[in-house]
Amino acid sequence: MTFPLEAFSAVSSAHPWTYVVFGGIGVAFGYTLESAGFGDSRKLAAQFYFKELTVLKVMFTAIVVAMTLLFGAVGLGLIDFSQVWVNPTYLGSGVLGGLIMGVGFIIGGFCPTTSLAAASTGKIDGMMFMLGGFVGAFLFGETEGYFDHWYNDAGHYGRLTLDQVFGLSAPTLVLIFVVMALFMFWGAEQLERIVGGKDQSREPRLRKVGAVGLLGMAVAVLAIGSPSLEGRYQRLTFKRSEAITQADGTVQTLPHVYSADEMLSKRLVFISPAEAFKVRYQQEIKPVYLDVRSEADYNLYHLADAINVPLDQLAAAVPDMLTEPAANTVFIAISNDEQAAIKAWKLLVANKVPNVYILDGGVNHWIATFGTQDAGLHPSATAGDDQLRYVFAAALGDRYASCSPSPMKFEELDYQPRIVLQLKRDKSGGGCG
Amino acid sequence: MQWLRSLFNRPEKPYLHPYFAGAVLGVVLFSAFLLTGNGLGSSGATSRIDALLVDLVAPTHVDNTPYLLKMAGGDKNPLDDWIVPVFLGALMGSFMSGARNGRLKLTTTKGPHISNSTRWLMSFLGGMIFLYGARMARGCTSGQALSGGATLAAGSWAIMLAIFASAYLLAYFVRKLWL
What we know:
The complex is a heterodimer. Chain A is of the alpha/beta class. Chain A is built from 17 helices and eleven strands.
């Protein structure tokens, strides 16, 4: 079983349990915040005068503990990180919004969630903060239209994590953050001693045991590492419905879960040239023809609009394919026959690129379907495995007639549709939106 | 009524040790990711409740305002989002903690040299400014700094630094409020 559980990916009245789960998480959240003293604005504001650094200690302990557990579980294959909500990066609105939040923090003495803890325990200033919050959020909704373009585009990098920014592995970064946090805690205690006049010798010894434990866990996360591509591939599952004819002649469709290798052996990811051609004209699908052959083959002949990413360069293109293409994008891997395309498919699905398919029989099958009338194409007898089985009069690229068959001429095509759009996690189902 | 009175007159217990509270909070945050794939948050619920109110008063205005349209346009229910039960749960949870530890008291927490009404005005203004910024940044200290920080989201770390930077820069000038 892989987490997060799909049943809890969003709340809906169809699954009343989801309210209980999210409500329970909220209860634990509020209970902890209040217990940490975050219902008292003086404790929060003291952070900014270096007298008492409770906010920093609680917040960073929480961040590094959650981070260590999260990436440990990801490394063990328990959690599928692609299904975890990562706040998309909008540098422009994020940084300006952050600066504005800081102003509200020091003037108001709370942040939104701590104001809940204050208000619900009878602090009038917490209630006022909440009230002001409703006004502020309302004002944002009213004024957002004036800078909509900036809000949605300034420094928009999509799903971007620090390991990608720094070119380090996530477990390495976890260890670095843990070490940094521990160093910060040490510094914070020094500050509290000097500025706040607090006697740190009366602090519990246990905190040092905790520090060592956390460090040990971070080292373990590094030892576990990131899940291998092969491991991720083996754990993939695909959902399809299967039509089964009963004894009495009725047809029943049953959902079925296949592994990646089953999808290949049952040829459920191979789409016929006819389907690959027809999806061009389907509004609901945005096909990307991904030609993974060598540039030389691509230059000889390729499907109209195909983009050439040779197999050995495909890994480098994965981040681009993951960063928010339209949810209805379907990648169709194409080689001369199928060999290279199958390799490409395995690489892409293991990297969680959604909606990847393979052109059945590759370019050779495409030409056999659409190019039999094409002058300038002649069958070749000497082709080997996954090589072009045609001889071309010239390297015309996509300027042979069969590269973009006429939709009028090929209007009626008989094929079994294979594409089942798998829409990614709804963006509104995640984050603090 | 006896139990209600006893709810408010319990002996006040000290707060948890910051590192311990932080570790518990970290486990809560991790559990949220493990079960649902989402982190924690609250400011989103504020604007969703706003959207509901606007939708009740002026539904056509919702359909003309892009930001509200996303949440409450047409027959969409703005409360149909994970953040709403988390928000209500957080209110309940902190009340439970306050009740259990004898910290339920109608009072105002403020610096020693300002009046209650100044403090209320400042909290109101602070809340207004904070939530304006939080909606601009698509999340507050919980949804961005805490949850985004733990998933190594690049933008969330930038937001966290921005929050602390401006609060520290401004702290000196508003010291009368707190010191």
